[in-house]
Write a structure and sequence with these properties.
This protein is α/β, with parallel strands linked by helices and about 240 residues long. The protein has a single domain (about 5-140, about 180-239), classed as Alpha-Beta Complex (Spore Coat Polysaccharide Biosynthesis Protein SpsA, Chain A). It has helices spanning about 35-45, 55-65, 85-100, 120-130, 190-195, 220-239; strands spanning about 5-10, 50-55, 105-110, 135-140, 150-155, 155-160, 180-190, 205.
Length: about 240
């Protein structure tokens, strides 16, 4: 993919995780979780630099071996549960600009907990971003939940979460909705740094299938990822 824009892919990987200890380097079929995202970014053909932002030396070591740049260890204040993703991204961008004299037009956030997102997903998402001259883009998957079907339970009493005429519509009469799957975020550098946001006025989406949209937060998610990984690779071996 030819593009005059320079793109920096940032993979944030904190050492601490309450839901799944050491999850960013837990093995998924003999490969550390974070390695899937690093390889997908490197193989996408649309990223100029893949950097891992981490506070953990072991994650840094594994990431470097997988081909990512790890030119800094993330400051402690950006490695807490309260630290915001935007601040982590801005720190990485400013590191490159202020210490490496490297400047990027587009910033891509790739969560290491989305190992089934592949190089083609990244390439297609970036193409949509460029073709639409977008300010930002997020990957999504078809939502299995309609907000008008949600209910609140209070002392055994069930009431609609959203009030309105649509709460009585049949499921097939409701519009298809998409949910963020956390796999890919793309944003213009200036919007991130100056606007302090990942979502701009011209915002686009890239639809991913549910089987590649697993976001690993606990052991159950990891088992789901293993299941979908096996199914995907079984299909490929039959082709």
């Amino acid at each position: 993919m030819m593009s005059k824009h320079k793109c920096l892919a940032i993979i944030p990987a904190r050492g601490g995780s309450k839901g799944l200890p050491g999850k960013n380097i837990r093995l998924l079929h003999d490969k550390p979780l974070i390695q899937y995202s690093i390889e997908a970014a490197l193989n996408s053909g649309c990223v100029d630099e893949v950097v891992v932002s981490t506070d953990c030396k072991e994650i840094a070591r594994v990431s470097g071996q997988a081909g990512a740049a790890v030119p800094f260890i993330r400051p402690d204040e950006l490695a807490t549960d309260e630290a915001k993703s935007i601040d982590v991204l801005k720190h990485a961008v400013e590191f490159y600009e202020q210490t490496q004299n490297q400047f990027f037009d587009v910033i891509m956030l790739l969560q290491p907990t989305s190992p089934l997102r592949n190089a083609m997903d990244i390439k297609e998402a970036y193409k949509i971003f460029l073709d639409h001259q977008a300010d930002s883009l997020q990957s999504v998957t078809l939502s299995g939940v309609q907000p008008y079907l949600l209910r609140e339970m209070d002392n055994g009493r069930l009431t609609p979460y959203l009030k309105g005429e649509r709460e009585h519509l049949r499921r097939q009469d409701l519009k298809e909705l998409h949910a963020l799957n956390g796999a890919i975020y793309i944003v213009k550098r200036d919007l991130l740094i100056n606007g302090d946001t990942l979502i701009g006025p011209n915002n686009c989406g890239y639809i991913m299938p549910k089987e590649r949209s697993v976001d690993i937060d606990d052991e159950f998610d990891l088992k789901m990822a293993e299941l979908f990984w096996r199914q995907s690779n079984h299909k490929e071996s039959l082709q």
